[in-house]
Design a protein that fits this description.
1 helix, globular, disordered N terminus, single chain, 413 residues
C-alpha cells in the first residue's frame, strides 16, 4: 500500500457526519451532498490532492466517510469482496472480507456501504448481505440473500447498496419466488418478503420515498419499477419497463436510482431506453406516465435534479455518450453536448461535479438550462480500468476512486 499524505488534510466538523444514515450518492440517494463553502473555480491543474490511498482492491463503488473514518470496498484474492477502513491520514484500521465477489464479468466490487449508528451494511457481488461493526470490522451477521431466498442476479453481478428503512435493511432479490426481502437490522432475521413479479434483480439500488402520509420503497427488477409498502412487503404498484427495452443491448438492464420530487418519479437506464417521468396518485397507490424523453437515457452514472432541470450523461453505445439537460416539468430537452464521454454526476453547493468514464476527466459545472457551463477541469491519471465509481464529497473534500486507487482533493474555499 502506498500513501501520499498532505498534513493540511483535516476534515472539518460537518453536519453530514452526524446524519443518522450515510449512504450511496449522498442525501436520500439523490446525488446531492450537503456541503457548503466549496470552491466555485479550481486551480488550472485542478484542486489540491491531499490524500492518495492504494491497496484496498479494485472496485466501482464510492467511499463513505463517517466521523473521520473512510470506508471503501474492493476485490481481493480474485474472489473476495473486502471492506476496508482508513483513518483520515490514510492509515489502514481494519479490513474484512464480507462475501464472494462476482467473477463472471466486470469482477470488481460494486457495493457502497450504508452506515447507521456504528454499523455498516454492505452486500457482495453474489448477494451476501452483511452487518459489520464500524469500529472493529467484525461481522455482526451475514445473510446469503440470493441463496436463501432463491434470488436471481442479472448478467454482470449484484451492484446493490443496502437500504435502511427504520428497523429493517431491505434487499432486492429478484427471481421467481420473491422481489425483495426485509431483514431485521439487528440480527439479519427475516421480517417480510415480497411476492415475485418475475425477472431477475436489476443493477439499480432501491430508494425510500415519502409521499403525503405514505412511505414507499422503490426498487427495480429487470422488468419493472416496483413500489413496496415498507411495513409489510406488499407490492403497491408496478410499472413495466422492459417494454421500452427495444435495443439489441441492455434488455433488462435497469441501472440508476429513481429520482423523486414533489410526488413525481423519474427513471432512466441507458441503451436507448427513454427517460420516463411518472406521477404518483395522492394516496400513492398508482402512477400515471407524464412524459418520456429519448435524450437523457443515462447509462449508470446517475441523474441530478436542480432548480427544475435534470442533468446527466446519455448513452450512444457502451463506450460513448454525451451530456444533457432536460426540463423536469415539460420533459423537453434543454441541451445535449459533447464532452469527452459519458460518466457520472453529483451535486454540492450550487455546482455539478461530472466524472467522465473513459479517460478520467473531471469537471466543475454550473447548472444551466441554456448550455453546458464548464467552469474548471482536471484529469485523474492514477488507477486503472473504467472510471465508473461515482464521486463523493465529505468534509469539503472531493473523493474520486479509480479502480484500486482513492484520491482525495481539497475543494474548500
Amino acid at each position: 500500500m502506498k500513501i501520499i499524505l498532505c498534513l493540511l488534510f483535516i476534515f472539518a466538523a460537518h453536519p453530514l457526519f452526524s446524519q443518522e444514515i450515510i449512504e450511496f450518492r449522498g442525501t436520500g440517494r439523490t446525488g446531492h451532498f450537503n456541503e457548503t463553502g466549496l470552491l466555485k473555480q479550481w486551480p488550472v491543474n485542478g484542486p489540491e490532492t491531499v490524500l492518495k490511498i492504494e491497496g484496498f482492491g479494485k472496485g466501482y463503488s464510492h467511499p463513505i466517510v463517517v466521523e473521520g473514518t473512510i470506508y471503501i470496498t474492493g476485490i481481493k484474492r480474485d474472489t473476495l469482496d473486502v471492506l476496508s477502513a482508513y483513518s483520515i491520514k490514510g492509515e489502514l484500521l481494519w479490513e474484512t472480507p464480507y462475501g464472494r465477489s462476482w467473477t463472471r464479468s466486470y469482477t470488481d466490487s460494486r457495493s457502497t456501504p450504508t452506515h447507521e449508528n456504528g454499523r455498516l451494511y454492505v452486500s457482495s457481488g453474489t448477494g451476501q448481505v452483511n452487518c459489520i461493526d464500524a469500529k472493529t470490522g467484525k461481522i455482526i451477521w451475514q445473510v446469503d440473500a440470493i441463496k436463501n431466498y432463491r434470488g436471481e442476479i442479472y448478467d454482470h453481478g449484484d451492484a446493490e447498496n443496502p437500504l435502511i428503512v427504520g428497523d429493517l435493511v431491505v434487499f432486492t432479490t429478484g427471481g421467481e419466488e420473491n422481489t425483495m426481502v426485509a431483514l431485521r437490522k439487528t440480527d439479519g432475521s427475516l421480517v417480510w418478503k415480497t411476492k415475485s413479479l418475475g425477472g431477475s434483480k436489476s443493477y439499480a439500488t432501491p430508494k425510500l420515498i415519502h409521499h403525503n402520509d405514505n412511505s414507499l420503497i422503490l426498487t427495480q427488477t429487470a422488468e419493472n419499477l416496483i413500489a413496496i409498502n415498507p411495513e409489510n412487503g406488499e407490492i403497491v404498484w408496478h410499472y413495466n419497463l422492459i417494454r421500452f427495452h427495444l435495443h439489441q443491448q441492455g434488455v433488462g438492464a435497469n441501472t440508476n436510482v429513481p429520482l423523486f420530487f414533489n410526488g413525481e418519479i423519474f427513471v432512466t437506464s441507458g441503451y436507448d431506453h427513454p427517460g420516463i417521468k411518472l406521477a404518483l396518485s395522492a394516496d400513492g397507490k398508482s402512477v400515471t406516465e407524464i412524459w418520456k424523453n429519448d435524450t437523457i437515457d443515462t447509462h449508470h452514472g446517475g441523474v441530478i435534479l436542480v432548480d427544475g432541470n435534470l442533468y446527466g450523461s446519455n448513452w450512444q453505445n457502451n463506450s460513448k455518450g454525451r451530456w444533457a439537460s432536460v426540463n423536469w416539468e415539460t420533459g423537453k430537452t434543454n441541451w445535449e453536448e459533447d464532452w469527452y464521454n459519458k460518466g457520472s454526476t453529483i451535486y454540492a453547493d450550487g455546482m455539478l461535479y461530472i466524472y467522465e468514464e473513459k479517460s478520467g476527466n473531471v469537471a466543475l459545472v454550473e447548472p444551466s438550462p441554456d448550455k453546458m457551463k464548464i467552469i474548471s477541469t482536471f484529469k485523474v491519471t492514477d488507477g486503472e480500468g473504467p472510471h465508473w465509481a461515482h464521486p463523493a464529497i465529505y468534509g469539503k473534500k472531493l473523493f474520486i476512486r479509480h479502480g484500486n486507487v482513492l484520491l482525495v482533493y481539497n475543494i474548500s474555499e
